[in-house]
Amino acid sequence: MRWIIVGVIILFLILLSVYRITRKRQVPVHNNKVIHLSAHSKKREQARKQQKCSFCRKENKKLAFYSDENGKIVGVCPVCKPLAERRALMRL
Ligand SMILES: [Zn+2]
User: pTM score, two decimals?
Assistant: First the structure.
């Protein structure tokens, strides 16, 4: 009977150490995810710099932002800017 209890305790300790090892392994994975996310947000920032014009759909770095009749924000390139101003959109 005593051997069974000792065996259960040893088994428990083994399971505990395995659990700790797997937890330690999960931490770098989590860090990798964080790095991946920050890299992803950098990509998103780059995408924000290269936004498309809401009228001609051409990518332009210098977009002027207006709020349209529905309160929707539209990015307008310098070419389409007179078009937006003709529609009397509110400049943001
Ligand atoms: Zn445009």
Answer: 0.42
